[in-house]
Amino acid sequence: MALRLNCLVHGDDRSGIFTVRVFEGFNVAKLKGAILSHPRFSHLDDLDLRHVSGPFLINDVGQKDLNIDNYVKLSNDSEKNSSIFEDISNDCLHILIGRVSTGLNESSIKDPNESEDAGVSNTNWMSMAWETRYYGEHHINLLTNIRKSIGDNPDENTSAIIQSSGFGKSRTVDEMAKLVATIPMNIRDTRDNEQGAYPHPDEDLTKLFKLIASKARNLDSAVGAFHKFFAILFREFSNKVDALLRSGSNQSLPVLLRDDLAKANSRSLLYKTVCEQYSSGAFPAPQLHNSLTELGNLITKLKPTMDNKEDPAWLILYVDEAHTLTELKIAKDTDTKPVSDTGTKPVSTLYDAMVKAATTYCGCKFFILFLSTSSRLRRLAGLKDVARSARQSMAELVAPFTEMPFDCHSELQNRKFRPTLLLKDIQKHDFLTYFGRPLWASAFVGSANKDKQIRALAITKLMGVSGIDIFTNLTPRLAVLDTLLNLEYSPTKHQTLQLADDMVAGNMRTAFSVPTDRLSMYSGYPSEPVLAEAALNIIHRNTNNACQDPMTKLYNELSDDVKEALDVGQRGENVAKIILLRAYMAAVRAESANEQHESYPWANGCSLIAFLKQLTAMKYHTEVLGSMPDTEVGGQRLDKAFENAWVRFTHFARGTDDAAMTTSMAWVAFVRGMAVIGWPAQGSVDLHIPVLLHKDKPIMESNMSGILVQVKLRRAWSTQSTVAIDADKLLYFPGPKNPRGSVEPLDEASKRRPYISLVMALGRPVKVRRPPSLVVQTTDKPEAKPTSKPNLSCTESNAAPSTGKEKHPAHPRYSLFFYGRSHRVYGCIPEDQSTQDAYNALLNIGASPSSMFDAHPKGRDQKYVYQMKPFWTIGKSCFYWVEDEFLNHSEAQDESDEFLEALFVGDNTSMDVDSILMRWMLGTPSFKRRLRVW
């Protein structure tokens, strides 16, 4: 019987689906041949095919996340199609095609105009990095944690290192091998082996494990095969120990073993011998007894070399690229694993078999460590997944290790940065590689065309696949936004866990910690300037006439599952961050050369004046730049006070205590090129943008100030005094009464540093408020009506004139109040309806107090829902049944007045915004007409 299988290349949209016709009796090899006959793959020899198990509707492609790591690879060419594809539906996707063997170096996206010999191959720079000095003590910490984790329970002698790419997992365990006898394995599938990947895989082992998976009758059969494998491995490794101990070297045995196995020919010979003996049947049954005997003999030889005989870990075996084991399913296993919650019976994998085999060696001072970017291992590992007993406790499992090197560059390890750096020092591209995971510095050291190679590598890594359109794949969209904005997620949502797993595995998300129960994972995008610059480049390259605001487009086009995972309480802050980054990017472009750039120097920064010009609508430039401090009489204009000031932020990082909102943090954040997000309990400041007051002077606390941002979503206008940020009350600057004191001696200018308070009232479109008392007051006093709209930035103050003797706050404050979220107040927001709609959607603007109207079927008249009184709102829909002109006022009249947007600047005034607004509105003819109606 013929099968019709729907296929899709990972990353393609729904239009890329095609169908192949194969017979049930054919095997996987024939299936690959049928797919390879498709014209698109005519130049390829092999394909990475994944079985999309479980129903995934074709109509859901592009709407729901389709992560390739969630599906088992079809790696057994002899397996029959009939055993894989059962009860298939024509409406579902059946095969997902992963990365193909094109021979291209996918770790580097080359510029079309770049010469072929530019840069160096991955093998060269990675091998060079492998030989450089290892900085930090993460290898010591890892061994310490392993020793603490080993216990008497069966599952307490295995665990995993789970971390995203580029953290140096392999290098860390290699360094740990100098401290404890270690057996290294790398089982990367050769078909997935990217050109230049390092370290190289042990191909003989990979082939043997595939053979075990294909021959095993069930899980117990595979476990027995592993006991046979371990028996041979322990014996051969024991022979190597004997030879090294006879060498007479004064080096420790772990170092001798590590150095010997670092030689390609020695390691290759070891595994070739092991695999040949396995195939020849060197060990007859029973295998379990043999493996325990050989392990005991090996441990006995290691004992004299141990300084601490009570050490619970004398021998460690690590399996690099361990997710390969999860993709090798035991083809004939149909009755071992229990039925899952979904009613399906999952097939056991070679990973299950190795973990179960390892439980036999509990108490033998032996530990197996799995290395992977796939956080699925945290859920797969443990006897609980392979045994029928429900009594096995998750608490008995060893929590995965995530602590890997970060900010470990030699410049950071050998000397601490002192507050003497100049702007030109931190604008060099190699400076960016000092921060974050070791990958960036390693690649920079080994690449000839350094800047371009690092930028290309970072984009590839962040996107997960080179050359992919960001708008056709859901997870990279979120990865780009998260890198820039540092999003927050609802921790209890199932979607959050799945997204985190996917982005750690494929999009450079950092795994911070995995709890003991393994049911969740704490992860995020910490401050990595190289990765942030890559994200900005992706945004820039996707900006065009058809898509003028890629960040809002990416955000709005996230799948429903992703939106469910995001913390809706942060939507205002997220939109504010998008606007601020847009203004920053526009200012950097404006201050760069006039020519078009593929990649602008985002990390260079820009002048604060240029940033404010891009942030502010042009009609308000004069008011903003000419504004005066509102905490004192007189003072300098803003453009004079900040004429030499510089801002530099390519991304946002999260703060969790009071130090985040200080000038001490400002100079550190400026050096990394980041802005800081406030924490929920910090009520007055949501965002902190560091400002270098004089760009030609050293970057130090006394030369720092900031733009302190508060984001408001509420409907009502607020008085300036309640929302303007007071840096002196915040203890933003050091001073005599400030607990942190002064970092260095302050001169008078440093003690009088200016700062900017920026309020971004992004909430619902601000509707004209019509309280009857104000209407009466206005109509009773016609002389109070101004004949023209007053200058909002220079509104007359009701406060008593200053005598000049009052005690003023130490630091001049320039207060800016942005009311709205469109081009009318923000110069960096495009002037088109689609962009306005995008921002409205992000903020849920226009939604009624109940979210039902968002879900209400489009095209249906909502007034009939209002008539059922789910809540009360002004207008005929609710009040048609009473005679009251005010309550029945039509919301459709004078719509231009319903959505007032404006920008105010503080000017030593105590007048609240409600009063300013009322006086302004009274000067508009349409509002005066409405007053007469009332």
Automatic annotation (TrEMBL):
Keywords, alphabetical: Secreted
UniProt-annotated stretches for the region Disordered: 777-809
Subcellular localization, as worded in the UniProt entry: Host cell; Secreted
Record-annotated Crinkler effector protein N-terminal domain positions: 3-97
InterPro entries: Crinkler_N
Highest taxon of the lineage: Eukaryota
Stretches with biased composition (Polar residues): 788-801
Name the record gives this protein: Crinkler effector protein N-terminal domain-containing protein
Organism: Psilocybe cubensis (Psychedelic mushroom)
